Amino acid sequence: MNTRFIRVAGAAVAVATSLTLVACGGGTEAADSGSAASAAPAGPFEYKDARGTTVSLATTPTTVVAQSSVAAALLDAGYQVAGAYGELKPDAAGKLSYQAGSLDLTKIQVIGSTYGEFDTEKYALMNPELLVDFTYDATALWYVPAAQSEKILALAPSVAVPGDYDTTDAAIQTFVDLAGKLGADTGSATVTSAKADYDAALKEVSEVAKTSGLKVAVMSPSTDSLYVADPDYLPEGNTLKAQGLDMISPENPKKEVFAQESWEKAPQYADADVILVDARTYDDQKAALAKVATWANLPAVKAGQVYNWYAAAPYSYQSYAKIYNELATELAAAKKL
Asked: Which partner from 152, 178, 214, 272 sits 20 to 30 angstroms from 123, CA to CA?
């Protein structure tokens, strides 16, 4: 993924609330929870990851630690990790970010609860057998701090899953496949039902797209610049285009996720009837953006047709069934401007 996406991720976690973590995992409770992890087959385990590295283990790992969105995707596919790190800091109401999916902090060890935070000592004490994280450059693990990476990666084998996918279908399948290799029953009624919900949600989007004629843009606005996503480089973008939704591309595509535009050029996107904004950052910047005239005067903004784009949501049928259902409802209520 390009540097803008990573920068946006960093900005999002930098402004996250600094509330005290109210649930930080239960030590040995995770190991005794009777989770899917404990039911893994004897092995062997083999997985070729996004770095081109093949991880081969004589036995299937049972003490698996993963980045939060990865852990949440694996959970929805039927596999409970032993520990997680990433976006795991509850808000004032005690609710986790959507990026954590259905993770229950009482069932896992929390190794870090925001970007750049990783408790190497706690991780070592778990005697980890596998670490799983995204990579966007086929080299570095996204949420593993660079300054600690050598020590962290020496403690257990690691698997890097791709950060970039053509469609959400392909992304989700990656985690279903990995969960299966770790011992999950990926053909369970839960997974099968979630897949049906996902397909139904996409069908709803398709039905709205056929009749609405709406033009949709995906953006990550900040006070210094407007970043416009190229749908060809987003799994959601390609998936929604396949349903017939008219997705707007940047004026000058960069063959990467985001094109950076000065605020003076924002009126070029006045034909967007709906704008999807990065849910990680928008709420914290909404008041400041209201003072940027070229943003406030965009027709979609004036009409209140600005909705969430759930960047870094867990790649699971459960997660994206909710996301696409919500989008279908929003699009059905939106007007052609």
From this structure: 178
